[in-house]
UniProtKB/TrEMBL annotation:
Keywords carried by this UniProt record: Aminoacyl-tRNA synthetase, ATP-binding, Cytoplasm, Ligase, Nucleotide-binding, Protein biosynthesis
Organism from which the protein derives: Ligilactobacillus hayakitensis DSM 18933 = JCM 14209
Reaction it catalyzes: tRNA(His) + L-histidine + ATP = L-histidyl-tRNA(His) + AMP + diphosphate + H(+)
Domain Aminoacyl-transfer RNA synthetases class-II family profile residues, every copy: 23-327
This protein's encoding gene: hisS
Name of the protein: Histidine--tRNA ligase
């Protein structure tokens, strides 16, 4: 039997994993500036956590979730997105309590799972970096979150970005708009896709998110939610637009954008790239919005929320296609060359001693001749070589070479084990 990774998954191998580490570390540093702290939630949750929050008519729930009954007959779901699990944790751990600062800011990183047709940048196991902020209605938080997402993408060298925003309003807005949308769509019911027919009276906003080409054509002339905003919703959205203007952030208002999850309201946004990775077609790499009411759905008190999710695979596709050179360091500082079997123990001791001192170290494990070891050190771009043979072992000495200049000095093994940094500076100054 030939064993292969499951369809729609990927092995992230050395050489690639460094890019992931760089992206994650860059995000962590930026989030720290905005005072977001990391939360890690389970990869699987109760089915209801997602079916209740994502919307029973959404593609995620109806088509894409990996769900199953475990041995205790519990209905379990591999998480298809990050927000619902964070909200569940926020409620369960009572992070809304008076002892916690508002807004309560947190971020997450990790794998998500959706059963869909695998394609470039869209896998069945994919990875997201996301942020969530709870407890504040102020539209300034919406704009801060959007700005943080843009700053993160720009920190990787991405310049050709487009920000689309919309509002889904409050409950009053959506109730009025829902009826207007149904009235508009009903004459086209026979022409709609089967999914949209199913959603027409249950959740007509989902029709706006349809990927079916005929559906897209029909909704082109649908009424705009912007014409149905309550005074409160209009004021919130106008403030968001004004604050974006004040920060010099360019945007377009897309009144047909609804996002793929039912929990959003008020501000929603997508940040798109027209990278060569997407053949110049504007494609979303980061998106999010406000979700007031989601905390209550999972048993918590009335608490507003705002956040975004970024697809790591898509981001890396853009970086690779646009040839953005990530400043990834994988420097080998010292290669320990051991000549003869008799030096095997001492080369191990030296390597471990240098690592404890904070240096990146490699040694030979294949009993290669000195020439082969030096060749390996050169190929790995080692900064120094530390060579020990039987004679050096007897003398408790080693030969230290600075590879860039070729400078070489003899050093005591005791000094190597006690203060290699000092020896490194000495050999650099030789000659």
């Amino acid at each position: 039997m030939k064993y292969q990774r499951p369809k729609g998954t990927a092995d992230i191998l050395p050489g690639e994993s460094e890019k992931w580490q760089y992206v994650e570390e860059k995000a962590r540093k930026l989030f720290k500036k905005y005072r977001y702290e990391e939360m890690r939630t389970p990869i699987f949750e109760s089915f209801e956590v997602f079916s209740r929050t994502s919307g029973e008519t959404s593609d995620i729930v109806t088509k894409e979730m990996y769900d199953f009954f475990d041995k205790g007959d519990r209905h379990i779901t591999l998480r298809p997105e990050g927000t619902a699990g964070v909200v569940r944790s926020y409620v369960e751990n009572k992070l809304y309590g008076p002892e916690f600062q508002k807004p309560y800011k947190t971020f997450y990183m990790g794998p998500m799972f959706r059963y869909e047709r695998p394609q470039s940048g869209r896998l069945r196991e994919f990875h997201q970096i996301g942020v969530e902020a709870f407890g504040v209605e102020n539209p300034a938080l919406d704009v801060e979150v959007i700005s943080m997402a843009i700053n993160l993408l720009k920190s990787f060298g991405l310049e050709s970005l487009k920000l689309s925003i919309n509002t889904l309003g409050d409950k009053e807005t959506r109730e009025q708009y829902r009826q207007a949308l149904i009235s508009y769509l009903e004459p086209f019911e026979s022409e709609l896709s089967d999914d949209s027919k199913e959603r027409l009276h249950k959740n007509p906003l989902r029709v706006l998110d349809s990927k079916d080409e005929k559906d897209k054509k029909i909704v082109e002339n649908a009424p705009s939610i912007l014409d149905y905003l309550s005074d409160e919703s209009k004021n919130h959205f106008d403030t968001v637009c004004n604050l974006l203007d004040s920060l010099g952030i360019k945007y377009v208002v897309d009144s047909n954008m609804v996002r793929g999850l039912d929990y959003y309201n008020h501000t929603i946004f997508e940040i798109m790239s027209d990278s060569k990775a997407f053949k110049g077609k504007w494609t979303t790499i980061c998106a999010g919005g406000r979700y007031n009411g989601l905390v209550e759905q999972l048993g918590g008190p009335e608490t507003p929320g705002m956040g975004f999710g970024l697809g790591v695979e898509r981001l890396l596709l853009v970086l690779d296609a646009d040839e953005n050179q990530l400043p990834i360091e994988n420097n080998l500082e010292v290669y320990v060359v051991g000549i003869g079997e008799v030096t095997n123990t001492e080369t191990l001791v030296l390597a471990e001693s240098l690592r404890i001192q904070g240096f990146s170290v490699e040694r030979d494990y294949l009993n290669r001749k000195p020439k082969g070891q030096f060749k390996t050190a050169s190929r790995l771009n080692a900064e120094f070589t530390l060579t020990i043979g039987e004679q050096e072992l007897n003398e408790q000495k080693a030969n230290l070479k600075y590879m860039e200049s070729g400078n070489e000095i003899k050093v005591s093994l005791a000094d190597v084990k006690n203060n290699f940094a000092n020896l490194a500076e000495q050999v650099k100054k030789e000659g």
